[in-house]
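User: New here, any thoughts?
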Amino acid sequence: MFQYLIVIEPLGLLYGSAGRFLSPENLVGRSGSHFPPSAAVISGLFAAACGNAAVQDLQLAGPFWANSNEPQNFCVPMPLNFLTHTPPHSAQKQLHEGHITARLTWDSNQWQNTEKESSGKAKTGGWVAIEHWQTLAKPLTDDEILSLKGRLPVYADPWKFLPHLHPRLRDTERRVVDPEDGQGSLFLENSVQMHPETCLVYLSNLPIEPGWYRFGGEGHMVDVSCHDLSQSTQILLQQPVGQCFALITPAIWGSNRLSYREPIPCNRVTDSTVWSVATMLTERPTPFRYRLGNRIDEDKNDIHEPHQPKLLSRGRYAVPAGTVYVLEEPLEQPWQDWSIEWFPKEGPSLKRWGCGLALPLG
């Protein structure tokens, strides 16, 4: 299904806000930060470059990142059943590498942790290179896990936020414009500076013409290139996920109104789920919006007019990348063969954007 690697290299800063702004009535600051951009943003880039008719069969997945000189070995989120020790993120010029200290295993009753190394505080999260996934999927002993130190690095985020305040000043006074003038007063842009030797990576089933594109808000420019996806990654994506697997992209399950932690049939009449989940390791769900709604009056009548902008409609919550599922019965098909009925649909199915892309774990 995925045949191409879309590589995005920033030409300066990138946009890291999630649509929120700073004003006297809405002081949110960094709470509006969001990075890296979801696959839905790449879908918009394809539609703008190729036209809406050309992207009806588009299939994407991401976000990931990689070293610019080695994009095929891109990094994916570390499964949450691995405990890692990673140096704190800072503005240094080198990528921060950590290592795995322990692995949590499910024994039908509880998660077992047999951590032997106690130097520093272990945590979950981080990024791991895709070429090391087969090693993570093997059943490893504690000694074998510790022997990976130095051979299987865990990376921190290769970017940092640089907030910029954009006030609109009066022409004759050193003060911001009164919000009553209809122009607002303050706008906080959460710009993002990536490590100079890294790039963003997304998977696609369609190619895109290389070149410079506007990407995200505030007119930021990026250099986009397209590469054939390596055969080893294609083989990995074609493996059945089995009984234990991890998400490498956020997942949105449920109906168009409700969010669940696992898939449900789109044409369901009960609360039955597709999977029989024995247990799962996850974190706090992440907000996700993908719909625009019309304006509604007090009587709930649609009063939207063509020249008016649409409003953000009901938000959704995504199961974060890195979540680990353990099922009662194994799934004998890879993610690309999962039924489209498992995914919510609002216009295109969310499977178009790589919702819940999963890889097997041992």
Remarks:
- The two ends are 24 Å apart (CA to CA).
- Residues 238-360 form a domain with the Immunoglobulin-like fold (CATH 2.60.40).
- Helices lie at 39-50, 133-136, 142-146, 231-237.
